[in-house]
Amino acid sequence: MSVEKIPAILLTAIGVHVCAQSPTPVIPEDERKMKDGPMDIQVGSLIIKAAFWIHSAIELMIIGGAVFCPESTMYKQALGYLLPVGQGSDRIFLSPYTAVAAILIVVGATIRYLCYRELGRHFTFQVTVLKGHKLVTTGPYAYARHPAYTGSAMAIGGIVMWFMAQGSWLRESCTQTGGDWAAVLLPASAVVFTLIFVANVLRRIPTEDRLLKEQFGEEWEVASPPTPGIPKRERKAKDGPLGVRIASLILRTVSWLHAAIELIRACWLPKSERVEQLLDYLLPDASRMFLSPTTGVATMMMVVGSMIRYKRYQEMGRHFTFHVTVLKDHKLVTTGLYSIIRHPGYTGLVLNFAGLYM
Hints:
Blueprint: H1 5-20, H2 41-68, H3 73-82, H4 96-119, H5 147-164, H6 169-216, H7 218-223, H8 244-267, H9 273-282, H10 293-316, H11 344-357
Helix pairs in contact: 1-2, 1-4, 4-5, 5-6, 10-11
């Protein structure tokens, strides 16, 4: 049992509700610019909210009952249904991974809320451009083109960790009673859930960009952060044997896979010999995975490098490209990082790679 988990449960439940609750009425289908896909976004949001609130209510009941009426016959009977035989309320606790998950959800929800407030009635769950729509470049939109999706991604990652980590009712109840099947199906469900979210975002972003470009034209071009790929005929230098976009994609994919393996090995410890054998191939000894002084320095280097890169994106705006070229209306930037060093972007990149190798 972990009484300190109660505030985390309430905060995460509210955070998920904020993320999945549309601040504006549903847009009629004839006014939408793209279909939601196999499942209506409102239905999907309702399922997420309902599932999380039910899960939160169960955890609150288990912890609250252990605090206020541990000897109650009704509580003991309910506990017998909710947790495996022989398991007590101490199985529901605030582990380091659920704490990280709670932070991700709360931060993601905060970003989403700021986006709701900034766009007002023009923030819709359905892709459309409403009458009187204005291009917003303040608040979160001053730092990213699609900050609401950034918040959603953080919240989705937090939700998956919250459900899958030790101390979660779903994880504790299923892996104890479901054996191998639960140990495989739960992570698989988390992967499918995440992939559905990613696929939906990748479908929506290009459509939203196209609509905004059609609506606002040059204003959108000037205001929009980092640019898409430059056509080959407009590049002033060749990328080399491997295109810069392909290399970037490979680097991101490898980094995310590495992070996912470490998270699964550290966070997901199922009571299943088969799954344990599979994880042993990925990382034989989980105790070998820890934050050493070297990895601490590496993390700091990558964070600093990323901040330098991001600051450069802000300074250059739409004129920052991964390909060597000079865009129309290009102006020489000598402010910010460019007042200190000629190529700050490469400085950040060197720090990133050095940290990555460490």
